[in-house]
């Protein structure tokens, strides 16, 4: 096999996740010596034709043109990896999914008739098969390096699916919920950031999206006990991963068991 | 990009931008007044701090709060990190390869001397990210910024370690100016009105009064009286103009022209040695201005760290009140304006965001019109490559800022 080729694609997004690749200042040139970066318009004007061994896809699908373009990208890509909350869950722009997109258009644009946008912002996996999803808003640099390394070595990326709580313990953070009563989405949020927010004395705001099996009732109970009302809880889950099914569910749960009860107490009630 | 040529003269140039709309101003309605720093950061992964800072200023203005001087200094330090990171990215990974005849920095890095150059650029960029990570908590979409200040103030010992990295970066930044000064710049000038924030006595970054080379001066709260945004059929990016005056330009060359006398001595010296005069009206030389601004940002960061004491408290509570607030800061690409109206419960009722790219689009098109007129004898491929470079001068914050151009020339 020759030098593997890498392509980077952008759909509706802020460019932050593909910037993460350029933020690998110490590793970028090493990566470029191992793979042929064949399509990366943020970094190069030379565009080599497909097919590509690996495609990294940033952004969500919000226009009919992009819905067609992602199919072409899939056809040209042996392995397709989605990077970031837009590509894996529709991103913050998926807030339109809970609203009237025509009304949204009229708020932003004086001439809505010039604008053509779909009523929803959807993740890449809603349109084509995806081989691996890397979460985060933005993705974590170390995790991106792990994914690229694993793909080059032909193994599965080692990306833990547990919650931010694990990372807090690993980092030795004081729990902001227990110590300060700060609302925190850490118990239901996918690990990967290294528990950044609690390390900065703030509650996790869920930018890595839901962990594998979140306990919705217990989480919402915690948030309500910390003083959040129903609308606050809904807003908390409707941000950068608003379109993730588990967060949609959490945004609709209005009550949970009061904190302090363990799983056994709840089961026995 | 469409160019229409009739009888050997350029009749029309249109830059069509199809960035899928994301509707931030619409979905900000109904959010809490504490949320815009995190939410609007997601408008741009390359300049999230500018969005966070303009949002904070606007909401604090609405709520009648002004942060303490030490908190304002810490914000300015974070902003320096973003300028360094964003400018180093543009200079080394996007712009310099044009001047040196390479398709990308990665191609440049394959050559003997090129590798050292790209490594220098990446090291400089990393120094900017080091500020973002310590003060902001994360290089992209920082988590440590809140309305009223910061969640956590870095310790002095952490700052000392950062200063060591920045002292090395200052040399890299000075080398960058000297290196870029040796590039060959096309002889091309514009006469646009230039607009930037000014803070007399200090190079404007994190706040200021709006001023223009045409003599306009107004407060950020009056922004919408002076700047009118219009939609054009060929682009999803809005076009801004000055009421009764027309197109204008914001960004590094505008800042340099309006505030160049307030650069720090080391940055001023670098600018003089590079042959930058009192103003810069050649967009190709913007790479030099960015390099000088990196020197300034590193130097300014060192000054701020030198006198740093962790602010206590590191934030003020900002209770909401029914009011409207405005905020403007200098994003790496130019003036970034935010306006929010909030109700007594702290929910946002309307939001307006004017990014630099929409302000510059009319000027970019005007430059392209004149630029193309002098190059009609080139074939389409050559012309495309040169137009791409002309657009990259402005570092517009759109995906197509980089390497995108689909040029159609209708030669009649």
Notable traits:
heterodimer; A: 269 residues; alpha/beta; 5-stranded parallel sheet; 38% helix; globular; disordered C terminus; B: 412 residues; alpha+beta; 4-stranded mixed sheet; 3-stranded mixed sheet; 13 helices; 16% strand
Task: Walk me through the structure.
The complex is a heterodimer of chains A (269) and B (412). Chain A is of the alpha/beta class. Chain A is 38% helix and 10% strand. Chain A has 13 helices and 5 strands. Chain A has a 5-stranded parallel sheet. In chain A, β3 (52-58), α3 (64-76) and β4 form a beta-alpha-beta unit. Residues 262-269 of chain A have low confidence and may be disordered. In chain B, the strands form 5 sheets. A 4-stranded mixed sheet of chain B has the order 7-6-5-10. Helix content of chain B is 45%, strand content 16%. In chain B, α4 (69-100) packs antiparallel against α6 and α6 (112-136) runs antiparallel to α7. Chain B has a domain at 1-19 and 189-281 and 355-379. By secondary structure, chain B is of the alpha+beta class. The longest helix of chain B is centred in the N-terminal third of the chain and has 32 residues, at 69-100. Chain B has helices at residues 24-27, 36-41, 48-63, 69-100, 105-109, 112-136, 156-180, 223-226, 252-259, 265-273, 286-306, 356-373, 380-392; strands at residues 2-6, 9-14, 145-146, 149-150, 193-198, 209-212, 217-218, 227-230, 239-242, 248-249, 323-331, 334-342, 348-354, 408-410. Chain B is built from 13 helices and 14 strands. At the A-B interface, α1, α2, α5 and α9 of A face α1, α4, α5 and α6 of B.
């Amino acid at each position: 096999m020759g030098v593997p080729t890498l392509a980077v694609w952008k759909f509706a997004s802020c460019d932050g996740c593909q910037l993460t690749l350029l933020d690998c200042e110490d590793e970028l040139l090493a990566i470029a010596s191992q793979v042929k970066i064949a399509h990366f318009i943020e970094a190069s004007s030379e565009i080599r034709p497909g097919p590509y061994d690996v495609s990294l896809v940033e952004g969500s699908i919000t226009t009919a043109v992009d819905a067609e373009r992602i199919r072409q990208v899939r056809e040209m890509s042996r392995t397709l990896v989605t990077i970031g909350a837009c590509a894996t869950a529709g991103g913050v722009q998926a807030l339109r999914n809970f609203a009237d997109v025509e009304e949204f258009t009229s708020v932003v644009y004086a001439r809505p008739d010039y604008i053509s946008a779909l009523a929803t912002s959807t993740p890449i996996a809603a349109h084509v098969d995806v081989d691996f999803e890397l979460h985060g808003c933005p993705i974590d640099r170390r995790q991106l390096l792990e994914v690229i390394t694993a793909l080059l070595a032909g193994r599965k990326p080692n990306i833990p699916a547990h919650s931010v709580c694990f990372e807090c313990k690993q980092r030795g953070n004081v729990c902001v919920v227990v110590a300060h009563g700060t609302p925190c989405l850490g118990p239901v949020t996918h690990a990967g950031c290294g528990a950044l927010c609690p390390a900065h004395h703030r509650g996790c705001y869920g930018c890595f999206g839901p962990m594998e099996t979140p306990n919705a009732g217990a989480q919402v109970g915690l948030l309500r006990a910390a003083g959040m009302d129903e609308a606050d809880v809904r807003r908390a889950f409707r941000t950068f991963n608003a379109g993730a099914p588990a967060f949609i569910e959490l945004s609709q749960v209005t009550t949970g068991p009061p904190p302090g009860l363990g799983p056994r107490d709840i089961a026995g009630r | 990009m469409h160019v229409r040529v009739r009888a050997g003269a350029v009749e029309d140039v249109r830059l069509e931008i199809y960035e899928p709309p994301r509707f931030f101003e619409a979905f900000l309605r109904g959010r809490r007044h504490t949320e815009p720093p995190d939410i609007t950061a997601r408008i741009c992964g390359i300049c999230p701090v500018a969005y966070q800072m303009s949002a904070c200023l606007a909401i604090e203005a609405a709520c009648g709060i002004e942060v303490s001087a030490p908190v304002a200094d810490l914000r300015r330090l974070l902003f320096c990190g973003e300028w360094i990171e964003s400018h180093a990215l543009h200079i080394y990974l996007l712009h310099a390869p044009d001047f040196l005849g390479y398709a990308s920095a990665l191609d440049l890095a394959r050559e003997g001397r090129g590798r050292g150059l790209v490594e220098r650029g990446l090291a400089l960029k990393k120094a900017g990210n080091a500020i973002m990570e310590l003060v902001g908590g994360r290089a992209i979409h920082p988590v440590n910024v809140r309305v009223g200040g910061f969640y956590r103030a870095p310790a002095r010992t952490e700052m000392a370690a950062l200063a060591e990295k920045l002292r090395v970066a200052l040399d890299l930044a000075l080398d960058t100016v000297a290196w870029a000064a040796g590039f060959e710049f096309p002889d091309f000038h514009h006469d646009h009105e230039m607009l930037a924030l000014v803070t007399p006595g200090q190079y404007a970054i994190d706040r200021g009064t709006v001023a223009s080379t045409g003599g306009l001066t107004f407060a950020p709260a009056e922004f919408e009286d002076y700047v009118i945004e219009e939609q054009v059929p060929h682009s999803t990016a809005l076009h801004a103009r000055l009421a009764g005056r027309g197109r204008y330009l914001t960004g590094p060359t505008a800042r340099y022209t309006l505030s160049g006398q307030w650069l720090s001595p080391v940055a001023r010296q670098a600018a003089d040695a590079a042959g930058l005069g009192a103003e810069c009206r050649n967009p190709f030389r913007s790479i030099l201005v960015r390099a000088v601004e990196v020197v300034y940002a590193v130097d300014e960061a060192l000054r701020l760290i030198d006198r740093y004491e962790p602010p206590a408290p590191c934030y003020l509570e900002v209770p909401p009140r029914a009011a409207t607030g405005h905020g403007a800061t200098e994003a790496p690409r130019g003036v970034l304006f935010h306006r929010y109206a909030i109700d007594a419960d702290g929910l946002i009722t309307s939001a307006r965001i004017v990014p630099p790219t929409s302000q510059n689009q009319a000027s970019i098109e005007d430059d392209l019109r004149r630029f193309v007129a002098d190059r009609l004898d080139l074939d389409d491929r050559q012309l495309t490559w040169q137009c791409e470079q002309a657009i990259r001068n402005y570092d517009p914050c759109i995906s197509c800022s980089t390497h995108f151009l689909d040029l159609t020339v209708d030669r009649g």
